[in-house]
Amino acid sequence: MGQCYSVDAKLIVKDEESFCKCIQQTMKDMEERAIFHLEDGNVNTAWGCFQIICPNAHDFGDGEYCADFDASYGWESVMLEIFEKAFDFVEDGSYFDLYPDSGKERIYREKGKTKTNY
User: Domains in the chain and their CATH numbers?
Assistant: First the structure.
């Protein structure tokens, strides 16, 4: 049994290589907690990384993405940990909004700092 997730994101990536390397390293550090299907995407682009973490994703251009999918209850903490670290490499105006079965959790960049509301 899992949980339904919806994600809306705007990722204004200032250094795509560093952004992707951060996500790859975080996924590697999580290997005991999570299974990532790296063969399903390109972990060398922001879009590719997003697709691996958030299946069934849609790209609206200009770094705007969304996804609706089912995953385990633990996936929520995996997504939040990955994107909170990767937000060191995005610009102000970026956000990652996560809607689990209930509530909303947000990571965003404002005035050069990563902020959260979870």
Answer: 3-116 (3.30.70)
Per-residue pLDDT of 46-60, as tens digits, reads 999 999 999 899 999
Q: What is the pTM of this model?
A: 0.91
Q: What is the C-alpha separation between 89 and 62, in angstroms, rounded?
A: 16
Confirm if 33 and 78 have CB atoms less than 8 A apart. Answer: yes
Q: Which of 82, 49, 54, 47 is nearest to 70 (CA)?
A: 54
Phi, psi of 69 (to 5 degrees): -160, 165
Answer for the pair 97, 66: CB distance below 8 angstroms, yes or no. Answer: no
